[in-house]
Amino acid sequence: MKVKYICIAAFIIAFGLFSCSKKVHPVTTETKSVSSDTIAAKKAPVKRTPKEPVPKVITVNDASAHKTVDGRYYYDLQGHRYWRNNKDGKYYLFNKTMYADAAFKPQ
After folding, report:
1. Under 8 Å CB-to-CB from 71, ≥6 apart: which residues?
2. What is the C-alpha to C-alpha distance for residues 71 and 64, in angstroms, rounded to an integer?
């Protein structure tokens, strides 16, 4: 008698678990018949907004910029790092040519 109830309970639990795991996705296209022609209605494409362009040169007050251990100033803006040019005082977007340029060397 106990075995019968245990089997029924196990069956109900297994049935519940398997029925919850089914994934049903709705159909995104619909068919409409117009004068014996079949036309598929599709969703409109999503228009993405373009990203803002990253400026190459910015002007920042040195009080708001950060200073490295070797004395160079840098400023982080929108996930990009700008380094201070010692000749004109403007901050330029980082690139590899700054290593060889004397204007970006520590003072």
Report:
1. 106, 107
2. 15
- For the chain, the domain total comes to 1
80 within some domain: yes
CA 93, CA 21: separation in Å to the nearest integer? 50
Cβ contact 37:28 at 8 Å: no
pLDDT number for residue 43: 78
State both tokens at 40. 């598929």
Residues with Cβ within 8 Å of residue 11, at least 6 apart in sequence: none
Quick one: pLDDT at residue 4? 86
Long-range (24+ apart) CB contacts under 8 A made by 30-33 are none
